[in-house]
Amino acid sequence: RAHIVRAALESMAHQVTDVAETMALESDLVVEDVRVDGGASQNDLLMQMQSDFLDSRVLRPATIETTALGTAFLAGLSTGFWTSRDELRSIWRSDRDFVPSGNHDVDRQRRDWRKAVAKSLDWADA
């Protein structure tokens, strides 16, 4: 059971890394920090794997559900409660920052992930 859960978490981290790598390649931008939110971001193991795979700092906010917070920010901006986006940036607080652990196994894990994805293509007939 624990192995299946770990595999699911690893899969999530690999998929996000795939997207981030593609975005960086297409935009010529380097990802230095990644801000996360939502329920899955509460999992420390997932966030550490994400930091390791991306080789970037992963920042988890104190307020995990930022969709609701963003809605409140927009409402506050439109009513004049807050006067600028800079003021909102000063409100954002980190719960925890995850930094790459220096895990030397990351290259092999990423290589194995890409190999598994390649083997799964055309798995079933359409």
Output the structural class. mainly alpha
| Oligomeric state | single chain
Question: What separation lies between the terminal Cα atoms?
Answer: 31 Å
Overall 3D shape: elongated
Give, in spatial order, the strands making up the sheet with the most strands.
Answer: 1-2-3
Give the SSE string: HEHEHHEH
Q: What is the helix fraction of residues, given as a range?
A: 55-70%
Structural summary, described in words:
Helices cover 56% and strands 10% of the residues. The protein has 126 residues and is mainly alpha-helical. A 3-stranded mixed β-sheet has the order 1-2-3, with helices on one face. α2 (44-54) links the parallel β1 (33-35) and β2 (57-61). α1 packs parallel to α2 (44-54). The longest helix is centred in the first third of the chain and has 26 residues, at 2-27. The relative contact order is 0.13.
Topology:
Elements: H1 2-27, E1 33-35, H2 44-54, E2 57-61, H3 66-79, H4 85-89, E3 94-98, H5 106-120
Parallel strand pairs: 1-2
Antiparallel strand pairs: 2-3
